[in-house]
């Protein structure tokens, strides 16, 4: 069976074409595209199908989408001006089956495909006595995703999407209170995603410029996450402060997820940014900020935390969802 699986992102879209027989999938074409190069998902998929040069139509297509996916409704992406309409896309693709799934729900499905070289342990936590423990996955990319999963008796996971990244940001100290005041001048609603994401790195950097130097020079306003991180590595003091504050915010968020879901089966950090800022996350300071939860600090500390280094997780998850859906 020919399957297309795709992890659509605000920045990049990762697509694979596989030939699946029973539970074995063989990849015959794989490509990553810059999402902004395409006006819509139809054009992206047309390009992918042309590039893949297959002689048949796909039987099944599964797209992991960054935004709330609701049955019977068009899916509007949160950080990309695309709206996907299932019936018309399915007709265009000529596929027997088209599945839309939230991108972090797909990543959650991808967890079971991870091998031990696909993640590193940030916090050992308390090893669960049985396998039947809740897991959660969150991660910064263009947005801030969050999903959780519950193991079932058949060894599979039941996965649940959330829009938790859009919950209200809450400052943890005086510096973050100043940050919140700064952000309120820019956004009517300051969510965690406004800060714990690639665009969030830029906001945090601008805040640090304002806070440390009293001004935000026009030529420094557009520095994206990668550039701020690079400048920090090169010793720039404002960029270093920004990456430190960003890491603290990420940790505070991860600690919130630890308490909300008590994911004793594992709290996984994914998204495009986590692996790229591994040296910032693999520190005692990150863990201390994760577990700075007052009377619940000891409880939060019990959760195992894993940093995912496998950059294909999203597309592996979309493929796992497609295989599960079509082959049971
Ligand atoms: N080294 C880095 N440090 C910090 N941020 C980075 C780094 N490299 C890239 N980024 C930021 O990561 C974001 C892209 O993340 P990602 O690769 O997860 O894209 P995506 O999968 O399209 O996102 P999403 O799935 O959240 O829509 C961009 O905003 C970019 O500026």
From TrEMBL:
Q: Note the Pfam families from the entry.
A: Glucokinase
User: Which Gene3D superfamilies does the entry link to?
Assistant: 3.30.420.40, 3.40.367.20
Ion transport is among the record's keywords = no
Q: Which GO terms describe its molecular function?
A: ATP binding; D-glucose binding; glucokinase activity
Catalytic activity, EC: 2.7.1.2
The domain of life is: Bacteria
CDD domains recorded: ASKHA_NBD_GLK
Q: Which InterPro entries match?
A: ATPase_NBD, Glucokinase
Might you name a Gene Ontology BP term for this protein?
glycolytic process
Record keywords, A-Z? Kinase, Transferase
Top-level EC class as recorded in UniProt: transferase
Chain coiled-coil ranges: none
> NCBIfam families, alphabetically?
glk
Family listed:
Belongs to the bacterial glucokinase family.
Q: What is this protein called?
A: Glucokinase
Give the originating organism: Thiothrix nivea (strain ATCC 35100 / DSM 5205 / JP2)
């Amino acid at each position: 069976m020919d399957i297309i699986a795709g992890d659509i992102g605000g920045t990049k879209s990762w697509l694979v074409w596989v030939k699946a027989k029973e539970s074995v999938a063989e990849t015959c074409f794989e490509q990553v595209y810059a999402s902004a190069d395409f006006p819509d998902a139809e054009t992206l998929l047309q390009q992918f199908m042309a590039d893949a040069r297959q002689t048949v139509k796909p039987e099944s297509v599964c797209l992991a989408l960054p935004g709330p996916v609701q049955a019977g409704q068009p899916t509007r992406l949160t950080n990309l001006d695309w709206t996907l309409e299932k019936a018309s896309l399915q007709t265009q693709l000529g596929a027997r089956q088209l599945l839309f799934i939230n991108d972090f729900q797909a990543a959650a499905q991808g967890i079971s495909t991870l091998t031990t070289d696909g993640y590193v342990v940030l916090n050992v936590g308390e090893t669960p006595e049985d396998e039947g423990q809740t897991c959660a996955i969150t991660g910064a990319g263009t947005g801030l995703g969050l999903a959780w999963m519950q193991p079932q008796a058949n060894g599979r996971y039941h996965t649940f999407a959330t829009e938790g990244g859009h919950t209200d940001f809450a400052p943890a100290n005086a510096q973050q209170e100043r940050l919140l005041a700064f952000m309120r001048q820019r956004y009517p609603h300051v969510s965690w995603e406004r800060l714990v994401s690639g665009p969030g790195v830029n906001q945090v950097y601008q805040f640090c410029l304002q806070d440390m130097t009293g001004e935000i020079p026009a030529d420094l306003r557009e520095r994206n996450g990668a550039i701020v991180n690079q400048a920090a590595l090169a010793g720039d003091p404002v960029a270093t402060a920004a990456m430190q504050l960003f890491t603290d915010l990420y940790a505070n968020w991860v600690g919130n997820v630890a308490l909300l879901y008590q994911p004793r089966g594992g709290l996984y950090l994914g998204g495009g940014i986590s692996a790229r800022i591994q040296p910032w996350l693999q520190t005692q300071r990150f863990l201390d900020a994760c577990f700075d939860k007052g009377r619940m600090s000891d409880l939060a500390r019990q959760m195992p935390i894993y940093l995912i280094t496998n950059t294909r997780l999203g597309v592996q998850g979309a493929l796992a969802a497609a295989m599960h859906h079509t082959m049971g």
